[in-house]
Amino acid sequence: MAHVSAAERRPQLIKAAIDLMTREGVAAGSTRAIAAELGVAQATVHYIFGTKEGLYRAVMDQLTQDLVAQVERAAPTDGGFEETASVLAAALWRTVREQPASHQLLSELTMFALRSPALKESLETHYRGWTEVTARLITEAAERAGQPLAQPVDTIARFFLAGFDGLTQQHLALPDEEAEHTCLQAFVSAVVAMAGGRLELVAVPTD
Description:
Strand content: under 5%
Largest sheet: none
Number of domains: 2
Number of strands: 0
CATH architecture of the largest domain: Orthogonal Bundle
Distance between the termini: 46 Å
Structural class: mainly alpha
Order of helices and strands: HHHHHHHHH
Radius of gyration: 19 Å
DNA-binding region: 30-49
CATH class of the largest domain: Mainly Alpha
Domain HTH tetR-type: 7-67
InterPro entries: Homeodomain-like_sf (IPR009057), HTH-type_TetR-like_transc_reg (IPR050109), HTH_TetR (IPR001647), Tet_transcr_reg_TetR-rel_C_sf (IPR036271), TetR_C_31 (IPR041583)
Helix content: over 70%
Pfam families: TetR_C_31, TetR_N
Protein name: TetR/AcrR family transcriptional regulator
């Protein structure tokens, strides 16, 4: 059998872990089960990631990077503040609708990490990364529009992400497309108002 380097095997194991835990939940994601998913020795997982927590950190990082990349690709380069907020919210919501399993797995990993000291740093990095990306996109939109922000940008970013976490959990537990779209519009309007814009309903694209 041809030798596969650790650099090549690493992304394969991360994908195998994501596939397995998406189907069966985080509790099923032992290093033995993940190794079996890919058809490699359990020792390979420990050699590459050290521990199960090391693999879980890599899974969280990969899921986050994939979602952030999709949102960043959708960010307008010439729109006003309200338009940018609306487009970014729509892009992020599209990932929830089209990839609910990824968001559910992230939620499960978050709860697991809160009880695991070995994953605390990774969880903080996950949320800090989301906050930094959101804050940057808000800042760029405000600068394009010449709009001073009424609140610190990190506060606006945290508010945005906190609201989105709530909408995501509701969608996973009790989906209702019509109600969700109305809530999304109201939520984006609240973000715009918090940033210093007009308090009015902001249209959010459905696709």
